[in-house]
Design a protein that fits this description.
The protein is mostly beta strands. The protein has helices at 32-38, 136-143, and strands at residues 5-9, 16-20, 26-29, 43-49, 53-57, 62-66, 72-76, 82-83, 85-86, 92-96, 108-112, 128-129. The strands form three sheets. It has a six-stranded mixed sheet. It has a three-stranded antiparallel sheet with strand order 1-2-5, with no helix packed on it.
C-alpha cells in the first residue's frame, strides 16, 4: 500500500473528492452489472475506509439508482459520470478508478466474475482470479492485504 492523496472528479467537474492513503489494491469486475454501469468490459474500483474518503465539492449534485438486489450506482446529475458511493453500512466507500484524476501507484489485487466475462474479453492476469466473487468482507481483506489476501 502506498501513502499520499488521490483526487478525483466527474466528467464535468461538478463532483470532486479525494482519497487519502495508504491505498488498497484495485479490483476489476466483469459482471454484467459492472459492465453496464461503466460502459466497458469491466469496472475497476477501489474500496477505501470511510475516514480515508472526503467530498470536496458537488455532493448535492449526485443522484443514485438502486436495484432490488441492493446494487447501487451513484452518478453526477449533470454529466452522468459514475461517482463514489458508500458500501452499505460497512464503513467503506467504493471509488470508481476511472473517476481518479491521476492513476497513482495502484495495482490490481483481484479479478472478479471472470465466469461472466465476454468471450473476447482478455482480462489481466495479475491479482487473484475469481469465477464469481468472494464475500464483501473477504474482498476488502484481500484488497487491503489482510489474512484473506495472503
Amino acid at each position: 500500500m502506498t501513502a499520499g492523496t488521490l483526487a478525483g472528479s466527474c466528467l464535468c467537474g461538478a463532483v470532486r473528492f479525494e482519497v487519502a492513503g495508504p491505498f488498497p489494491m484495485l479490483y476489476q469486475c466483469h459482471c454484467s452489472l459492472c459492465r453496464k454501469q461503466g460502459g466497458s468490459v469491466s469496472n475497476t474500483g477501489l474500496i477505501v475506509a470511510t475516514d480515508s474518503f472526503r467530498w470536496l465539492a458537488g455532493e448535492s449534485s449526485i443522484s443514485q439508482w438502486q436495484r432490488s438486489t441492493g446494487f447501487r450506482s451513484h452518478f453526477c446529475r449533470t454529466c452522468g459520470s459514475t461517482v463514489p458511493n458508500p458500501l452499505r453500512d460497512t464503513g467503506f466507500v467504493w471509488v470508481p478508478a476511472g473517476a481518479l484524476d491521476e492513476g497513482g501507484n495502484l495495482g490490481i489485487g483481484a479479478q472478479l466474475f471472470l465466469g461472466s466475462k465476454f468471450a473476447w474479453d482478455a482480462p489481466r492476469r495479475d491479482g487473484l482470479q475469481f469465477d464469481t466473487a468472494p464475500g464483501l468482507g473477504a474482498l476488502i481483506a484481500i484488497l487491503h492485504g489482510g489474512p484473506a489476501g495472503q
